[in-house]
C-alpha cells in the first residue's frame, strides 16, 4: 500500500499531450514561467479567458483545505515552506473525456470479473481440476494460517470491496502496472475530490464519490442495515492513519457508525468484538497479511472473522494480492480456464490493459522448452541466466516482488534494468531468483510513456508553473451488489526524468474531472 499506490514504472516517450488544463469556464492564463508556445492553439484561447490570479488563488485555497495535521504523514515528510501538502498542488484537476470516463467505468466490472475468476481458479487448482501450479505459485511464502483462512469454505465467495489499478498512459495504450485491493489514497482522493468540486469542476465520481462509494461497499457487506464499523490500521501502515481517520469521520457525517483504530484497541469480550464500549460487527482490514505476526491482536481479529462475529473486508485471501496473477492470466496453458470463468470478450479486453508478466522461477526448463512469449535480444528465453550480461538497450525490463513482503509496495523492491548499471541489474536478477521460495518476483517489459502537461503552484516563486511529466491514473472502484462504481481517480504526474511514478514531493497530484476538452484515453 502506498499513499497513491505501489510504485509503478514507465519511460518517457516522444508523444506529448496537454492534460489537466482548465475548462473554458475555469481556465487560467499562464505565467511568464510557462511558455504559451507549449500550449496547443486550440487550448490557448481558453487559458487566456481567466486571470492568472485565479489559478494562484485556487492553489492557495486548495493548500488551505489540507488539514493542518496532514492526510499522509506530512509531519514526517519534507514540505516546501508555506505548503501543507507533501506533493505539488495543481490549480485544476486532470481532465478526461466523457468517453474515457465511460471506458474506465467498464474496466471496473472487468477487473471485478478478473478477481472473481482468479478466486474460483485458485479453488479449482487446490481441488485438482485445473493445473496445480496455479495455486502452488500463489501459496509460496505464505504461512499455514494465511493459506488456511484463504481456503475456508465460509469465505469462498468473498472478494475485495475496493479495486484500485495503477494505470500508466503509454505509447502502447493504457497499461495496468498492478492491482491493489488494500489501497492507500482513499482519504486523500476523497478530500481532493470535495475541494476541487467546490471550485466548479465536474469530478469523476462526484463531489463525495469516494466517501459514498466506501459507505455503499461497507453496507453491502455488513450483516445488518446499521453496520458498526471499525477501520483497523496497523503500525506498519501508520502513515495512512490520518487519511483513514478522515474517511471514518466522513462516514460518521453520512450517518454511519465508524471509528478508526489500532488492532490492539479492538478486543474480544463476552463473545463480541469490542472497541472500547462499542460492539463492532464490520471490520475494514487496513493491514497487510505478510505483517500479521507483528500485529497485536491479529489472532483475535481472525478468530472473530472465522466465527462470523464480524464481517472482515478485504477477505484474508493473500492469493488475490499477488502481482504474479498477471503472469497466470497470460499463461497459455490457463487460457481456456480464464475464458471459461470470464468469457472470451472480457479476457480480450483485459489483455489490452494487463501487461505480459513472467514469474522468475529458478527451476530449470527441459531443453525443448521456452518461457512463453518472452524474447531477450531477439532470442527466446530458456534460462533466466539470459537476463544477465545484457546491454542497456536489452535491459528495458522491470523486476518487482510479487507480494506478501514489505518490499512489495512502494519503490523499495522495484528494479529498472536500463536505469541501473549492468552489475546491479545482474545482482537484482540473482537476488530475485534466490528469493523465489519465500518472495517470488515477476518480470515485466518497460513501456514507453507519453508526456502530458500540467501546472502546479510554486510556493517559493509565488507563481503557477508548468511541468511536463509522465502520468499514472489510480481509479478507485467500490464493489456493492456484485457491481463496481468508479468513485474517483487519483492522478500522479512526475517530472519527465523520473522512471518511478509515486507520490514523491516533486510529483503533481490531483483528482480527475470530466470535460469534453480532456484527454482521450487509449483504453
Structure notes:
The protein is an alpha/beta fold and 523 residues long. The chain has 13 helices and 24 strands. It has helices spanning 41-47, 52-65, 98-127, 133-139, 144-151, 186-198, 209-221, 241-253, 298-306, 324-330, 335-342, 344-351, 422-434; strands spanning 8-9, 11-18, 88-89, 94-96, 162-170, 173-180, 228-233, 257-261, 266-269, 272-275, 278-280, 282-286, 311-313, 357-359, 375-376, 379-380, 397-401, 415-416, 441-445, 448-458, 463-480, 483-495, 500-501, 508-514. Strands 2, 3, 4, 5, 6, 20, 21, 22 and 24 form a 9-stranded mixed sheet that branches. Helix 11 (335-342) crosses helix 12 (344-351). The longest helix has 30 residues, at 98-127. It is globular and about 65 Å long. The protein starts with 7 loop residues before the first strand and ends in a 9-residue tail after the last strand.
Largest sheet: 9 strands, mixed
Oligomer: single chain
What share of the residues lie within helices? 25-40%
What spatial form do the alpha-carbon principal axes imply?
Answer: globular
Task: Give me the Rg, rounded.
Answer: 23 Å
Number of helices: 13
Distance between the termini: 25 Å
Count the beta strands.
24
Summing up helix and strand content along with how strands pair, one would put the structural category as alpha/beta
Task: For the structure shown, list the relevant keywords.
disordered N terminus; 13 helices; 523 residues; nine-stranded mixed β-sheet; alpha/beta
Walk me through the topology.
Elements: E1 8-9, E2 11-18, H1 41-47, H2 52-65, E3 88-89, E4 94-96, H3 98-127, H4 133-139, H5 144-151, E5 162-170, E6 173-180, H6 186-198, H7 209-221, E7 228-233, H8 241-253, E8 257-261, E9 266-269, E10 272-275, E11 278-280, E12 282-286, H9 298-306, E13 311-313, H10 324-330, H11 335-342, H12 344-351, E14 357-359, E15 375-376, E16 379-380, E17 397-401, E18 415-416, H13 422-434, E19 441-445, E20 448-458, E21 463-480, E22 483-495, E23 500-501, E24 508-514
Parallel strand pairs: 2-20, 3-24, 4-24, 7-8, 7-12, 12-13
Antiparallel strand pairs: 1-23, 5-6, 5-21, 9-10, 10-11, 14-19, 15-16, 17-18, 17-19, 20-21, 21-22, 22-24
Helix pairs in contact: 3-4, 3-11, 3-12, 6-8, 11-12
Amino acid at each position: 500500500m502506498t499513499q497513491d499506490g505501489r510504485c509503478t514504472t514507465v519511460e518517457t516517450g516522444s508523444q506529448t499531450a496537454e492534460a489537466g488544463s482548465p475548462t473554458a469556464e475555469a481556465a487560467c492564463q499562464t505565467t511568464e514561467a510557462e511558455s504559451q508556445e507549449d500550449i496547443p492553439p486550440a487550448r490557448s484561447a481558453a487559458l487566456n479567458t481567466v486571470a492568472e490570479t485565479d489559478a494562484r488563488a485556487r492553489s492557495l485555497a486548495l493548500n488551505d483545505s489540507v488539514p493542518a495535521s496532514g492526510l499522509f504523514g506530512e509531519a514526517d515528510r519534507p514540505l516546501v515552506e508555506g505548503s501543507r501538502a507533501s506533493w505539488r498542488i495543481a490549480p485544476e484537476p486532470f481532465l478526461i473525456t466523457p468517453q474515457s470516463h465511460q471506458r474506465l467505468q467498464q474496466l471496473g466490472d472487468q477487473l471485478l470479473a478478473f478477481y472473481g475468476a482468479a478466486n474460483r481458479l485458485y479453488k479449482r487448482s487446490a481441488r485438482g481440476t485445473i493445473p496445480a501450479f496455479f495455486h502452488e505459485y500463489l501459496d509460496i511464502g505464505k504461512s499455514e494460517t494465511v493459506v488456511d483462512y484463504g481456503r475456508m469454505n465460509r469465505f469462498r465467495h468473498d472478494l475485495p470491496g475496493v479495486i484500485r489499478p495503477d494505470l500508466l498512459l503509454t505509447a502502447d495504450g493504457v497499461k495496468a502496472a498492478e492491482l491493489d485491493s488494500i489501497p492507500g489514497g482513499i482519504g486523500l482522493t476523497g478530500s481532493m475530490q470535495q475541494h476541487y468540486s467546490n471550485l466548479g469542476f465536474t469530478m469523476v465520481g462526484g463531489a463525495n464519490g469516494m466517501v459514498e462509494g466506501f459507505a455503499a461497499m461497507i453496507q453491502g457487506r455488513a450483516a445488518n442495515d446499521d453496520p458498526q464499523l471499525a477501520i483497523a490500521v496497523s503500525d506498519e501502515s501508520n502513515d495512512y492513519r490520518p487519511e483513514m481517520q478522515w474517511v471514518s469521520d466522513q462516514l460518521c457525517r453520512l450517518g454511519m457508525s465508524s471509528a478508526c483504530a489500532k488492532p490492539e484497541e479492538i478486543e474480544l469480550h463476552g463473545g463480541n468484538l469490542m472497541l472500547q464500549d462499542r460492539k463492532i460487527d464490520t471490520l475494514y482490514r487496513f493491514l497487510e497479511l505478510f505483517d500479521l505476526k507483528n500485529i497485536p491482536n491479529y489472532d483475535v481479529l481472525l478468530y472473530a472473522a472465522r466465527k462470523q462475529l464480524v464481517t472482515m473486508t478485504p477477505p484474508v485471501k493473500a492469493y488475490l494480492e499477488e502481482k504474479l496473477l498477471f503472469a497466470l492470466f497470460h499463461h497459455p496453458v490457463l487460457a481456456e480456464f480464464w475464458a471459461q470463468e470470464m468469457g472470451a470478450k472480457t479476457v480480450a479486453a483485459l489483455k489490452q490493459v494487463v501487461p505480459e508478466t513472467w514469474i522468475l522461477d529458478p527451476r530449470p526448463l527441459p531443453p525443448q522448452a521456452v518461457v512463453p512469449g518472452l524474447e531477450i535480444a531477439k532470442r527466446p528465453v530458456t534460462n533466466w541466466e539470459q537476463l544477465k550480461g545484457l546491454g542497456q538497450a536489452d535491459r528495458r525490463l522491470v523486476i518487482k516482488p510479487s507480494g506478501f513482503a514489505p518490499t512489495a509496495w512502494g519503490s523499495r523492491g522495484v528494479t529498472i534494468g536500463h536505469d541501473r548499471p549492468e552489475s546491479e541489474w545482474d545482482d537484482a536478477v540473482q537476488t530475485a531468483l534466490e528469493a523465489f521460495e519465500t518472495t517470488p518476483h515477476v518480470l515485466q517489459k518497460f513501456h514507453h510513456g507519453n508526456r502530458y502537461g500540467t501546472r502546479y503552484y510554486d510556493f517559493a516563486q509565488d507563481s503557477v508553473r508548468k511541468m511536463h511529466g509522465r502520468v499514472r491514473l489510480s481509479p478507485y472502484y467500490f464493489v456493492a451488489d456484485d457491481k463496481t462504481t468508479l468513485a474517483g481517480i487519483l492522478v500522479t504526474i512526475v517530472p519527465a526524468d523520473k522512471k518511478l511514478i509515486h507520490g514523491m514531493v516533486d510529483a503533481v497530484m490531483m483528482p480527475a474531472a470530466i470535460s469534453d476538452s480532456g484527454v482521450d484515453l487509449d483504453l
